[in-house]
Amino acid sequence: xxxxxxxxxxxxxxxxxxxxxxxxxxxxxxxxxxxxxxxxxxxxxxxxxxxxxxxxxxxxxxxxxxxxxxxxxxxxxxxxxxxxxxxxxxxxxxxxxxxxxxxxxxxxxxxxxxxxxxxxxxxxxxxxxxxxxxxxxxxxxxxxxxxxxxxxxxxxxxxxxxxxxxxxxxxxxxxxxxxxxxxxxxxxxxxxxxxxxxxxxxxxxxxxxxxxxxxxxxxxxxxxxxxxxx
Length: 230
What we know:
DNA polymerase, domain 1, 230 residues, alpha/beta, Rossmann fold
């Protein structure tokens, strides 16, 4: 894939940050404490706002407290949250006005996970609190593009979960999926699926960003240089 885009809009959990183990632990603990089937929750929660998942489980009067409880559990579980491959090289190289993050998590939690992973905070970060409807609705990605004063059709969305892929496509962006938290077969709605961001190169120019994906087999023989920009 060779794309010329104005910006890249990244999901965070599972795309920039490996927090899958922490997410699984906290949902299992919360489900056990409240008498729910953790496996059923884990089948649907990835890529969605916690409040949207909880809304499927609890009556309205108990939802706000449950969201707060879950966030506190997640904030206390940052020990093995790490940056995913190539992200520590890529993000510092991107001009601030050429990238944003769109997440289903709360701003407080996402700032904590980015810090734990040693990744920079984008100037534009659209979090769960910023939208009325979460992924797979496109609202978050449309808001990020508008905040950057860019046409969403000239943006690339990078996602790891089916709900996020659907959100990016519904917004009108091109979508690149990374198979870091879901099998590639579940990500087929994206324009392209790669193993992770080491299979990608980005060049920054005066006109925008040039994004190239490389052959996976060929990439395995390259030095681990991550993504590049100039």
